[in-house]
Amino acid sequence: MNFASPSLFLAVVSGVFTPLLAVDIDVNATTHVVTLFKNQGEPLLRYTLDGRDPDFSAGVYLAPIELPQGGTVKVAAFDG
């Protein structure tokens, strides 16, 4: 196991709404499963996997995301 080269990096930026997330990490896997949680009535979650900040054209979170090892997921909450 090589701890000098992490395969997953998570950064949470504070804002008006911060979604909760869970990551299923298996050091032997080539992908990780990222699950987002929000309460009913809270803003819509949109995400990207290409490093761009999410905007209104980004994918809507509906189910857990399979993220390639070393990948980046960015999530933002949108009202309306």
Structural overview:
By secondary structure, the chain is mainly beta. The protein has one domain. The protein contains no helices and 6 strands. The chain has a 3-stranded antiparallel β-sheet with strand order 1-2-5, with no helix packed on it. A hairpin with a 6-residue loop joins strand 1 and strand 2. The chain is globular.
Helical segment count: 0
Order of helices and strands: EEEEEE
Question: Shape, please?
Answer: globular
What value does the Rg take, in angstroms?
13 Å
Number of domains: 1
Number of E-state strands: 6
- Taking pLDDT < 50 over at least 5 consecutive residues as the criterion, the unreliable ranges are 1-7
What portion of residues is helical? Answer: under 10%
User: Major beta sheet, specifics?
Assistant: 3 strands, antiparallel
- Distance between termini? 44 Å
Structural class: mainly beta
Strand order of the largest sheet: 1-2-5
Beta-strand content bin: 35-45%
**How confident overall, as mean pLDDT?**
77
